[in-house]
């Protein structure tokens, strides 16, 4: 990921000061470590994820409090893989981001919140809030 950001910084047509991490499901488990290590990431979006049985718990517990950037966590109320109150909310609470920059959204869906159109608006609104409207 860092090498990818290195490349993005060479592109005059991209604003490398406005990089967000977006992770879905198992890929979102990295939202607890990657933004804590890679300082060029300025916001993170976590979709359908929580404390993981597959990803190293130690990483989530040790790195999540070090994430200080804006966080949007989106999850489905009926997700049978990621129980909201047992796995999603505890991970969200671990993030070290100030409360005014932490956003937790629950949709009337299962695991695949990306099929719900409301998440698209919320995600774009989140990015606009922290990066400004896209050009």
How would you sum up this structure, described in words?
The protein is α/β, with parallel strands linked by helices and 135 residues long. It is built from five helices and four strands. The chain has helices at residues 2-10, 34-37, 57-63, 84-94, 117-131, and strands spanning 19-24, 41-47, 71-76, 102-107. A four-stranded parallel beta sheet has the order 1-2-3-4, sandwiched between helices. The chain is globular. The model has no long low-confidence stretch (mean pLDDT 88).
Give me the secondary-structure topology.
Elements: H1 2-10, E1 19-24, H2 34-37, E2 41-47, H3 57-63, E3 71-76, H4 84-94, E4 102-107, H5 117-131
Parallel strand pairs: 1-2, 2-3, 3-4
Relevant terms:
135 residues, alpha/beta, four-stranded parallel β-sheet, 34% helix, 19% strand
Short description:
With about 140 residues, this protein is α/β, with parallel strands linked by helices. The protein is built from five helices and four strands.
Rough shape?
A: globular
How many individual helices? 5
Helix percentage: 25-40%
- Strands, total number: 4
What value does the average pLDDT take? 88
Largest sheet: 4 strands, parallel
- End-to-end separation in angstroms reads 24 Å
Tell me the radius of gyration. 14 Å
Order of H and E elements: HEHEHEHEH
Model regions low in confidence, pLDDT < 50 over at least 5 residues: none
Structural class: alpha/beta
Give the amount of beta strand, in percent: 15-25%
